[in-house]
Amino acid sequence: MSFEVDIRKTVRSERRSFELRVQFRTRARRTVIFGPSGAGKSLTLQAIAGLLTPDAGRIAFGGEVLFDAAAQVDLPARRRDFGYLFQDYALFPKLNVRQNIAFALQPGLRNPSAHAGGDAVEKWLRAFELAEVASQRPDELSGGQRQRTALARALVHSPRALLLDEPFSALDPELRQRMRQELDDLLQRIDIPVLMITHDPDDLDRFGDEALYLRDGRIAERPLAPGAMPSRRTTVA
Amino acid sequence: MNHPHPRRELGAALLAAAIATFSFAANAADLTVSAAASLTNAFKELGPAFEAQNPGTTVVFNFASSDALLAQIAKGAPADVFASADQDAMDKADAQKVLAAGTRRNFVGNTLVMIVPSDSTLGLKGPADLAKLEVKRVAIGNPASVPVGRYTRGALEAAKLWGTVEPKAVMAQSVRQALDYVARGETEAGFVYATDAGIMKDKVKVVATIPTETSVTYPIAAVAGSPNPDAARKFLDFVLTPAAQAVLARYGFGKP
Amino acid sequence: MDASVWITLALTLKVAGCATVINLVLGVAVGWLLARRRFIGREFLDAVLTLPMVLPPTVLGYYLLVVIGKRGWLGAWLQNTFGINLIFTWQGAVLAATIVAFPLVLKSARTAFELVDPQLERAARVLGLNEWQVFFRVTVPMAWPGILAGTLLVFARSLGEFGATLMVAGSIPGRTQTLSVAVYEAVQAGEDNVASFLVAITSITCIVVLLASGRLAPTVRAR
């Protein structure tokens, strides 16, 4: 299962303009795109997921073309069959844990009921030890519980790959190590390709079977020296 | 060194403006005349004539249906003169004791007519034709609050036509609104005074004069306890002078 | 007091109810469009659609009368094509109330949609929902308190609509005489008892509706 990405996208805001020009191909089981804030990591991941349309280029996964500007192919996000973990989890605040997890399995225009069940939902509730808080809403959960809920929600419909946007940055430092271990164990069990973006070197060590370095909207040739990574981006010329 | 206080000066200026605005209403030389809607055009011409004869007095008019005007007066509106389109409204005023004793008198007469839009092709000739299917809506003043509606109902009841016409009735708030409905073509026919039909000669045409059980005479009286009783009495005398009566006659009003 | 008061109340609720339902659908649709789509003249369109809120109702009533009356361009067309005349009908009253109250739900809906976190909609998309599902399962529920508040304002405004309604629909007991018009007529005719009774009925109706709708959007729990 490989990701092939070759895209260009210009993003304009009031004060600046940012150009993303990313090319890479990876066959690894676990790929990490590593770079400082503002490098364009989220944009890249959203483009792969179908949440953002590049200006030009091509995206393919496992040989299937998801996006091709020249051929006018643009598969919408709902047909790309990826699981996506957002940086702040984007849990639905008015739905409880159970409903959030069951969300993708519910067809039609109504949300899952508060007692939504089913084998897949129960399996993930148990796997992530969320059974006890199943009726609670996201604002009543701890950071770790929220992350697990978001993961369960992303995995419940058995996606073919997992896209993770800075999965641990919203957690306390002490929690991060434990959650890394949990994710590692999980990935051993479910064994689907993973593409993670992060600015944390510890994530890179743990999950970076293949490492890509993104800086100023471009993939760099070689990794930067340790400690040379500024944590805040200044305006791009 | 004097420091100007802009905020205080602004506040004083605003206060002065507010007082000036509100005290406008208390001008002692204003004569307020509440008159039935059908008198609108004629009285507007009489106003300046009265002012010319009584320098220092400004006449302020308030036109609406007679009952509506009475409702205002009964609740203390500061009118000096009340001119109504039928005896009924004035009787009600008398019963509520809002009239100055001995000032009530009749000053003009009018006629009830049936009108149609000037481009009407239905060939209506009188109230009996209102039973036709093509007549869907008839503009009538609301009998509960408009004298012309009372005259109309009385006349139609006497002719045994009220039962046929009432389901098609569109109640107007005043005789002028009834006139407007017909002028716009929103109703196929309507009942107004001859004087009103004369105002919109190009938009409506009179097809019948309707005899009423009691003749249409307009009473006028001074309001009890009003701000300007002397000017009120002068106005009452004024409307009966030959000059004023000639103006009223020009608009189609008859002798009382 | 005769039974006609209840007929008047039923008619008023019918007119206000229809105007509210129409405005809910229109307000949500147009509000979403203004919140989410960029196009030339967007703010100008918003201003034009908000105009009924600043125009006096009698002015609106006059414009309506001129446009949909028998001699108006739209009214003549309706008459010739469908044989429909809206003047002096309860449907005309619904039209007047709808136009007068529309800006109230438009403003609320647009703001409510603008405040919905787009990240939640992206999450829904990547979980497999199509755009209609995203709209009804994520966007609308998140915007709902604002939309509901706007809808309530529309209902209250429609219930009390007078100026434009009187001009367009007239005052025909049982057919277009709504509670507000009936109160006006009672005062004009000097029937204070009737007026007071009608005012009381209107007030009680409004309070009942406000309380009932409070259950549709429970207030946010304090943390």
Keywords for this entry:
heterotrimer; A: alpha/beta; six-stranded mixed sheet; five-stranded antiparallel sheet; C: 223 residues; mainly alpha; MetI-like fold
Radius of gyration of chain A: 18 Å
Helix content of chain A: 25-40%
What structural class do the secondary elements of chain C suggest?
Answer: mainly alpha
Strand content of chain C: under 5%
Q: Can you give a write-up of this model?
A:
The complex is a heterotrimer of chains A (about 240), B (about 260) and C (about 220). Chain A is α/β, with parallel strands linked by helices and about 240 residues long. Chain A is built from 6 helices and 11 strands. Chain A has helices at about 40-50, 95-100, 120-125, 145-155, 175-190, 200-205, and strands at about 5-10, 15-25, 30-35, 55-60, 65-70, 75, 80-85, 160-165, 195-200, 210-215, 220. In chain A, the strands form 2 sheets. A 6-stranded mixed β-sheet of chain A has the order 7-8-9-3-10-11, sandwiched between helices. The termini of chain A are far apart. Chain B is an alpha/beta fold and about 260 residues long. Chain B folds into 2 domains: about 5-110 and about 215-250, D-Maltodextrin-Binding Protein, domain 2, CATH 3.40.190; about 110-210, D-Maltodextrin-Binding Protein, domain 2. Chain B has a 5-stranded mixed β-sheet with strand order 2-1-3-10-4. Chain B has a 5-stranded mixed β-sheet with strand order 7-6-8-5-9, sandwiched between helices. In chain B, helix 2 (about 40-55) runs antiparallel to helix 10 (about 240-250) and helix 3 runs parallel beside helix 4 (about 85-95). The radius of gyration of chain B is 22 Å and the shape is globular. By secondary structure, chain C is mainly α. Chain C is built from 10 helices and no strands. Chain C has helices at about 5-35, 40-55, 55-70, 75-80, 90-115, 120-125, 130-160, 165-170, 180-190, 190-215. The interface of A and C includes residues 77, 80 and 157 of A.
Summary, kept brief:
Chain A is α/β, with parallel strands linked by helices. Helix content of chain A is 26%, strand content 25%.
Helix-strand layout with pairing:
The complex is a heterotrimer of chains A (237), B (256) and C (223).
Chain A: E1 3-12, E2 17-26, E3 30-34, H1 41-49, E4 56-61, E5 64-68, E6 73-74, E7 82-85, H2 97-102, H3 119-127, H4 143-155, E8 161-165, H5 173-190, E9 194-198, H6 201-207, E10 210-215, E11 218-219
Parallel strand pairs in A: 3-9, 3-10, 7-8, 8-9
Antiparallel strand pairs in A: 1-2, 1-4, 4-5, 5-6, 10-11
Chain B: H1 6-23, E1 30-36, H2 40-53, E2 58-64, H3 66-74, E3 81-83, H4 87-95, E4 105-110, E5 112-117, E6 138-141, H5 147-158, H6 162-165, E7 169-172, H7 175-183, E8 189-193, H8 194-199, E9 204-210, E10 216-222, H9 229-239, H10 242-250
Parallel strand pairs in B: 1-2, 1-3, 6-7, 6-8
Antiparallel strand pairs in B: 3-10, 4-10, 5-8, 5-9
Helix pairs in contact in B: 2-10, 3-4
Chain C: H1 4-36, H2 42-54, H3 57-68, H4 73-82, H5 90-114, H6 118-126, H7 131-160, H8 163-169, H9 179-188, H10 192-214
Helix pairs in contact in C: 1-5, 1-7, 2-5, 3-8, 5-7, 5-8, 6-7, 7-10, 9-10
